[in-house]
Amino acid sequence: MEMFGDVRVDDYYWLRDDSHSNPEILSYLKAENDYTNQSMSSVKQFEDQLYAEMIAGTKEEVGISTPIRRGSYYYYERTLVGKDYKLHCRRLITNDTCSPSVYDVMPISPKAPAEHVILDENIKAQGHEHYYLRAFLPSPNNKLIAYAEETKGDGIYTVYVIDANKGTAIGNPLKGVTSYIQWAGDDALVYITRDESHRPDKVWSHKLLSEQSSDLCLYHEKEDTFSVYVYASESKQYLFVQSWSDNTQFIMYLDVYKQEGGLMTLTPRIYGIQTKASHSGNHFFIKRTSDELFNSELVYCPIDNPSETHILIPHRESVEIQDFQLFSGYVAIYEMENALQKVTVYNLPQMGEEIGLLQNGRAIDFVDPIYSVYTEESQFSSNILRFSYSSMKTPLSVYDYDMTSGISVLKKIWPVPKGFESSDYLIERKWAVSTDNTRVPISILYKKNLVKLDGFDPLSMYGLGSYGESLSPGFDPSVFSLVDRGFIYAIAHIRGGGEMVRKRHEDGMLLNKRNTFTDFIACAEYLIENKYVSKEKLCIIGAYGDGGLLIGVILNMRPDLFKAAVLDYPFVDVVTSLLDPTIPSTTAQWEELGDPRKEEYYYYIKSYSPVDNVRAQNYPNILVKTYLYDTYILYSEAAKFVAKLRAIKTDDNMLLFKCKLDEWHYSKSGRDEYLDDKAFSYAFIMKLLDLAPHVSS
C-alpha cells in the first residue's frame, strides 16, 4: 500500500474477510482458539473459580433497584434467584399529594399497594441466545411503556409500546432503529435510525397507532463525522436533538406542547464549540465549551430569545464543568478539579425573577479521598437530588440529598459478599511525572494485610486515554479477585482521557496522541521506582478499542517494563482502518486521532500504529481477544497484530489469541456473562506469575 510516496507492506491483509465465511480464515482462527485453550487448560478450574467469585461479588440474588418516583408510581427493577434478566415493576403511591422527602421509602408490607410486573425480561429472552432491553420509558401520564429490544447483538433495535397495566401492544413496533427514544407527550415518540455505516443520522417523529412508513423525519445529519442523539429536559417540556462530533456539538429543540413547530435551533453548528442544554422555568440553560472556554461555562437564555445568553458560572482554568442537573428551584453542578469530582447545589430564583451569577452554592461532602459520583434521575419539581457514589473500596451507593437542608440519606448500597470489610483496604492517589513534566494521577487500591510495598507485590494497571472518557476510581467488584490475592490494582489517568480539565483530553489527541503513551509509561516507572511493583510482576490491561490501542503501542515502545499484557478487542491496525471510511468507527476517529488521508497525520499515526511498528525484539507475555462479527473494530486487526508478532518477535514468551467466532462486540447479555472475559484474563495473568493452582493436562 502506497501513500505520499511511502510504501507499507501488509503480509497479513488476507486475514480480513467482511463476509466472515472464508473457510481458510475460519480454520485459522479456530486453530488459534484451540492453541489458546490448550495453553490455558492447566488453569481452567482456577478460571472457573474466579468466574464464580466474580458472580458472587456482583450478583444481587433477590432484590430491587432504588425505586424512582414518577407521578403516582414508584418504578423499580427486581432480580430473582437463578435468573439472568430483570423484572420491570411499579407500585402505586397512595399519598402522592404529600411533598417528597429524602426519608420516603416505598412500602412493601402486605397492606401496601401490590407490586405490578410490567415486563419480565426473562420471558422476553426465551429462545434468544442474546437479549438486550434498553430505554424502558413510561409515558408522561404513566399509561404506556416504550422500550427498545435487541436480540442479535448487532445494535439494531425494535421499539415496542405496551399498555402499562395490561401489557398489550399498542400499534406495530418500530423496526431497524436505535435505542435512542423519547416520549413527545403521551401519544408520540421521537426516535433515531442509523445509516449504512451504522452512524445515527436521522431523527423521526412517530404518532402512536400510525405506520412507521408515514413517520416524519425531523432531521437528517448528512455530515458523516457527525451523529445524532435525543434526550429530554428534566422538566419534560422539551426534547433536545444533539448533533455531535468529537469536538463540535450543536442543539435543536422540540417543544412537546407545540410539536407542529418542528425542530428549532438552540445553538448553531460552529466548529470547535460544544453545547449541552436543558430547561427550567422560562429559560434554557446551556453548558458551552470552546477552545477559549476549554473547561466550559454555564449560561442561560430566555426561551423566546436563545441568542441572548447570560453567564451563570464563568469558565475557570482549573475547574471543568462536567454536567449539570436542573430542578424547578435548584441546579446541581458536577465539576472536576485536580482529578477529583465535586457536586455543588445552587438555588434558582422563582420564575420571572432575574437569575444572575450563581453564588453561595453548597458543596456535598464525600468521605473517601478519591471517589466517583454520577447523576441519577431525580424529580424535577422536588428539592431532592439523587446521585450514586462509590470509591475503589466503597460499593455503589445511591443517596437522596435534600438541597434545602443539606441532609444526605442512603437509599441503597450494592450488596457485597459476606466478610467484605471496606476498612481492610487502602486507596491512594499518587502522581507520576511524564516526559514533559506533566503530572499524571494514579488511583491505587490494595488490601492492607497482603501488600508489603517492597517491590515484590504483583500489580495490575489499567488505562484508556481517549475521547475524553474518564476511568473513574469507582467500585469494581471483579478486581477483588486480584486484590484479595495480594495484587495492587492501579488506574493510570493519562492524557486523552477526561479525568482532569478538558485540556488534558486535547493534549492526548491528534498530533499530541503520543502524550497518552508516555504518560502510561511514566505511571509504570513511578510504580516501579516507588516499590509498588517490579518489572517482573507488572501486568497491564487495556480494553475496548482505544484501551487496546494504548497497550499495543506501549508493547512496541517499552516491552521491557512488563511481565504480561492483555488487549481486549484492540484497535491496532490504525493507519489501514482510518483509511477505510466503510468501517463505522472510522469517521469518528478522524477527529480524535486525525485523518491519515492528510500527509501530516498519516506519518504521525504511522509512527505509533501497533501493527506498523512491531519489530524484532523481546516482548512480554501477551493475550489478545476479539470478536469475529465486530463491525466497529474488525477482528482482522487483532489477528494481524498477533500474526506479525509471532513472525518477528525474538522471545519465547506466551502469545495467545482468542477470537469469539459467534458473537458481536458487546453481544454478551445477562447479568453475569461478561465476567467470563475477566476471569479468563485474570487467570492468564496469575498463571504467568505462578499464582494460579495448576491441574496437569
Automatic annotation (TrEMBL):
EC top class, in one word? hydrolase
The domain of life for this entry's organism is Eukaryota
GO terms of molecular function? serine-type endopeptidase activity
Transport as UniProt keyword:
no
State the InterPro entries in the record. AB_hydrolase_fold, Pept_S9A_N, Peptidase_S9_cat, Peptidase_S9A, Serine_Peptidase_S9A
Q: Which UniProt keywords apply?
A: Hydrolase, Protease, Serine protease
The positions making up the signal sequence are none
- Which residue intervals define the domain Peptidase S9 prolyl oligopeptidase catalytic in the entry? 475-689
What cellular component terms from Gene Ontology apply here?
A: cytosol
Protease among keywords: yes
The job of this chain, per UniProt, is described as:
Serine peptidase whose precise substrate specificity remains unclear. Does not cleave peptides after a arginine or lysine residue. Regulates trans-Golgi network morphology and sorting by regulating the membrane binding of the AP-1 complex. May play a role in the regulation of synaptic vesicle exocytosis.
This protein is called what? Prolyl endopeptidase
Which organism is this entry from?
A: Platanthera zijinensis
Lineage, highest ranks first: Eukaryota, Viridiplantae, Streptophyta, Embryophyta, Tracheophyta
